[in-house]
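Assemble and predict.
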Amino acid sequence: MYTEKVMEHFKYPRNMGEIPDADGVGTVGNPVCGDMMSIYIKVKEDRISDIKFKTYGCGAAIATSSMITELAKGKTLDEALKITRGDVANALEGLPPVKMHCSNLAADALHAAVEDYRGKASGKVKREATTTEINRCEYCKREIPPEECALATYCTTVDGKEYTFCCSQCGQQFQREKTRG
Amino acid sequence: MPVEKPLRIYMDHTAGKPVDPSVIEAMLPYMRSFYGNPSAIHAFGSETRRALEEAREKIATLINAEGKESIIFTSGATESNNMAIKGAAYRNKDQGTHIITSRIEHMSVLNPIKFLTTREFKATFLSVDHQGLVNLKELEETLTNETILVSIMYANGEVGTIQPIKEISQTVHSKNAILHVDATAANGQVPIDVQDGGIDLLSISSNDLYGPKGVGALYVKKGVRIEPLFQGGGQERGIRSGTENIPGIVGFGKAAETAQKEMPTESKREAKMRDKLIKGLLDNAPHSFLNGHPTKRLPDNAAVRFDFIEGESILLSLDMKGVAASSGSACTAKTLEPSHVLLAIGLKHEEAHGSILFTLGKQNTEAEVDYVIEIMPEIVKRLREMSPLTPKEMKLNVH
């Protein structure tokens, strides 16, 4: 299912590890989703002089992390910000379609690391994302955290409608018609 | 004695088993020479009819059915489960419209029931405990006179837990509901006796017995009535129309006969290897755990999980070393969801993601088990070194 290039990076990941005195760190993903990665950068004269990664996740997550460190090393920060998820996938000679969204997070992590560096350099405090929407299971009334809401469900399609087990705790079934984006 | 390193080790038997050579031999004449339609009255038909009925007898013997007429051949466990559930629900809807099942059933049980709830039926999904045992108290409390069908699996293929079917049957029958048991994972592993167990409908498949894929059966107890899924020429007592898959059914029969002979010794052998594998995996890696029940467990099933790492990367690492296993991780699923079974036994998403399932089979040897035990710590250590979730203070080398 994976290309040889993906497997090669999975077997021999480049630049794996942490930089304890990193100038910028970007962490994206979530262990609940099954993929999480941190990118550490050192910056010298507006260029990425060193880069390392740590990743929890599937083969694609590890290979994309490894690949982005190769793509970004030596680049200016502006050049690094231009590296897209598509560039990472292309450099790996393609990823399975199902992995394009969930596991191809390395570009996002790199961008977050660059932004972290620039934020620190300019003295700005990183703004935390806030959510006000609270989802509750219709049956046990448990509050379902946003990151779980999309995940605690599994769906089946009958007559074009999706039926969902929403709550991983009480397992109660309720029907929710959803439109696939 | 040094371990000979084999190149390919198959420990994913619950996903698919090789066909036994004796089964292939038994099937060949029914592809080469005997092709008559078993419904035909001429000699060509009689030959295949005889083979069909002999196979039916062998399946009936394996599960101790009261007679071979109770065995209906199908295209596999998915069809058997659909036939049992939709068939019993529609046939008995005058008696009530409530169905009970558990949250750890196979998709081919859960999805037909979910489908029925979009029609005139209601369903209750029973919880299970941390070891995968169905909550019997909840079963008692939710059973009403409206309940027409209860579907509980004999054993779960993903966590290995074996349910107390006899006890479940007594409870179910106290309210005159029908008990359907999906025995796909248990079949060939543990002795199944439909009469002693008080089972009304039982699904089994051929491949789980080292028979060909695409063949299965539904046991329908005498007196239990179900609506057919297919209307047609009225084969299989009108319950399953369509010309019978004779080569497949002959292979299924042979596989059942062989399973019955081999099960007592083979189950013991596999259970011993299973215990060694589980112990070896857990002892050699910190933060590793068993999934499922420690003793009420299928003999082929070693389900474990490792914290801080993800299952697909474990599977790829094993595959690089020649070992085939499977995982409950979302990353190996079509749905991008971790296994519903692992979530139902109370695992967190990240725990489910780190779950690995080894299922043993007839050709596995103890040397292969030793090899897996030997290579696993290094795989776990390498992935933990990469993982940002691994606690910094954790010692990665513990032996």
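Chain B touches chain A at residues 103, 111, 114-115, 117-118, 123, 125, 127, 308-310, 312-313, 316, 320, 329-332, 334-338, 340, 343-344, 348-350, 353, 385-389 (CB under 8 Å).
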